[in-house]
Specification:
Helix content is 33%, strand content 23%. It is α+β, with helices and mostly antiparallel strands. A hairpin with a 1-residue loop joins β16 and β17 (292-298).
Length: 415
């Protein structure tokens, strides 16, 4: 049966490729799309062999990334584990604990649920890198509702066994990882997940890359599977944060004035007070900030909202803040279409968004995070939330374990 026809999640153990050094924390990075050029320089200042050299090669030189990957494997900087495994992965900090399984997951299953649309540019970029390196260099992040045997095994292994690695990155997060190699345990975890659905929490462009790569081949191979972290959201609810927008060259005063034709606009001298109001108000609501007093906009004209949002969408989709932002506030109120050049993205940090808006004589649009249940429901209906609507965390650290295609023949197939 082709992967695109499979129902349920199919897991396969793999022989992980890992850094063979003591200071593993210093060669890891956040996911590629959270690493700015300055961040990349900082990571390389910490260690010249940081994985960022593979995931974001200078000048988009993907051939150089392949050459470097091969050189690191030949020299022992990267080593390949002897046995195929599912990897138990734990992240912990002062206020959170997340555990899950890193596995090779079948590509194309209808049980892998995207919830965001993708843009062709990032997919083409990641596809070129994957073709060149013939490797999954970083996992996507999947969440599923479970509370079953897989989660029990994850907790048992992480509680009672010695980890393969135990490191703390400079952001204060502790990362531990174990190899699950027992065939009976692998079978039990796989069987538990076989009838479940999983939401793509992070990595939509990478998953689209996996699918594009698989479509290029007409025979079975390593492209039928891809690297993923699977987390049971019943046991470890994800942290869903907001992604803010910045509109360059739209002065705050103009943005607020034009909003008054469709919204209730409340002015605040202090940004903190506006944000407190945002958290307390019924949705949809936004804070507009930049040079000058901040503005909380609430209670949009229901008739204008009704005309602006597409009627074929579900009621739950139409209530999403990001849907109101993309379909009404940006195009109808401000005459701006959402794209990567005219609408900049800032993850989580409201103050960083405001500073960016001030530098560009623009307006920061600060949002509340979406609700996980809404995202799951929208995805289950086959709909997509607008781009950059969600930021699930904590995201898996890149560089702890890689999967290369040349080990595929030594990975056990489905039972």
């Amino acid at each position: 049966m082709e992967s695109s026809e499979r129902a349920g999640l199919e897991l396969r153990p793999f022989r992980g490729v890992r850094f063979g050094m003591d200071d593993v924390a210093d060669v890891t990075s956040p996911p590629y799309d959270l690493v700015s050029p300055d961040d990349a320089d900082d990571l390389l200042d910490i260690h010249p062999n940081n994985v960022v050299r593979l995931i974001l090669p200078r000048g988009h030189d993907y051939g150089e990334a392949r050459t470097l990957l091969d050189a690191w494997r030949s020299s022992g900087i990267l080593v390949t584990d002897d046995q195929p495994a599912l990897y138990v992965y734990e992240q912990s900090g002062a206020e959170f604990l997340q555990r899950g399984l890193i596995a090779a997951v079948a590509v194309g299953s209808p049980s892998v649920l995207p919830h965001e649309n993708v843009l062709p540019g990032p997919v083409a970029d990641r596809l070129a890198l994957t073709r060149a390196t013939e490797a999954n260099l970083e996992p996507i992040f999947l969440v599923y509702e479970g509370g079953g045997e897989a989660a029990r095994l994850v907790d048992d292994i992480s509680t009672h066994r010695e980890p393969l690695l135990d490191v703390r990155t400079r952001d204060g997060v502790r990362h531990r990882m174990w190899a699950m190699t027992d065939p009976a345990e692998i079978a039990a975890a796989s069987d538990d997940l076989r009838h479940r659905q999983a939401l793509i929490a992070d990595g939509h462009h990478r998953y689209a890359t996996y699918r594009a790569l698989r479509a290029e081949h007409n025979k079975p191979g390593p492209w039928d599977f891809a690297l993923a972290l699977l987390v049971d959201s019943t046991e470890y609810p994800p942290d869903l944060k907001a992604i803010h927008r910045v509109i360059p060259d739209l002065p705050l005063s103009e943005a607020a004035a034009r909003a008054k034709g469709a919204w209730q606009v409340h002015e605040f001298e202090r940004l903190e007070d506006a944000l407190a109001g945002l958290a307390a108000r019924p949705k949809p609501a936004f804070v507009l900030a930049g040079n000058g007093p901040s503005h909380l906009i609430t209670d949009p004209d229901p008739l204008q909202i009704e005309h602006a949002l597409p009627g074929e969408r579900s009621p739950r989709w139409r209530r999403l803040d990001t849907a109101v932002l993309n379909e009404f506030l940006l195009p109808k109120v401000w005459g701006i279409e959402d794209d990567e050049e005219r609408v900049l993205i800032v993850h989580h940090d409201a103050l960083a968004a405001v500073r960016l808006a001030q530098r560009h004589n623009g307006t920061a649009v600060l949002l509340n995070p979406l609700v996980t249940a809404d995202v799951l429901a929208v995805a289950a209906e086959g709909e997509r939330v607008p781009r950059k609507s969600t930021s699930f965390g904590p995201k898996p650290r890149t560089g702890l374990v890689l999967r290369t295609f040349d080990t595929f023949d030594t990975e056990p197939g489905p039972r």
